[in-house]
């Protein structure tokens, strides 16, 4: 296997049972084990804790659509220039939106994508929270509310944006390489 992280990557056979179960589930659902799983398995307890939080925020029914959560992931990851997350969540946005052109446009410059007013408000909020978090103010919620988002959806969006900012930093700091399979998904 090619190098997927700047740190050591544990062998699948020596990973703890919880990590092996997650790898098996990923193989069944995706057809491969995401490299972010393999790389973070070096510290299995913190990896599984991260996965629980990530999965709860990103992969469940919530107050935002799955497409909108992936939209936020791609915007944040693009702003942070996180190769792993931009590629992997770009693939997810292609699949969930059913529109590769839309997803690719969002990945380069969300302002050029055909967004609904609600999606545009979410992207603008994600951009400000990602690039200038110290400048956030109560007024930043106005555009989200005006676009039809309630407090539950605003909290969820903020948590998703925060999760991707943290995950981007871990992935970029440790040189995580996206799986080749992501480049073909949703095309």
UniProtKB/TrEMBL annotation:
It comes from the Bacteria. Residues 47-108 form the Carboxymuconolactone decarboxylase-like domain. One of its GO terms (molecular function) is peroxiredoxin activity. It holds the Pfam family CMD. SUPFAM superfamilies: AhpD-like. The keyword Oxidoreductase applies. Keywords: Oxidoreductase, Peroxidase. The keyword Oxidoreductase applies. This is Alkylhydroperoxidase. It comes from Deinococcus soli. The lineage of its organism: Bacteria, Thermotogati, Deinococcota, Deinococci, Deinococcales.
């Amino acid at each position: 296997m090619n190098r997927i992280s700047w740190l050591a990557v544990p062998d699948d056979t020596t990973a703890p049972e919880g990590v092996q179960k997650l790898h098996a589930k990923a193989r069944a659902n995706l057809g491969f084990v995401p490299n972010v799983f393999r790389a973070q398995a070096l510290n299995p307890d913190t990896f599984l804790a991260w996965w629980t939080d990530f999965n709860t925020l990103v992969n469940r029914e919530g107050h935002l659509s799955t497409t909108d959560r992936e939209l936020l992931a791609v915007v944040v990851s693009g702003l942070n220039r996180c190769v792993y997350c931009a590629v992997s969540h770009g693939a997810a946005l292609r699949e969930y939106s059913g529109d590769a052109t839309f997803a690719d446009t969002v990945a380069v410059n969300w302002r050029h994508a055909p967004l609904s007013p609600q999606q545009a408000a979410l992207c603008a909020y994600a951009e400000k929270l990602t690039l200038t978090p110290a400048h956030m103010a109560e007024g930043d919620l106005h555009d989200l509310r005006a676009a039809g988002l309630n407090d539950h959806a605003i909290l969820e969006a903020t948590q998703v944006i925060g999760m991707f900012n943290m995950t981007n930093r871990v992935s970029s700091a440790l040189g995580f390489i996206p799986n080749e399979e992501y480049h073909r998904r949703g095309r």
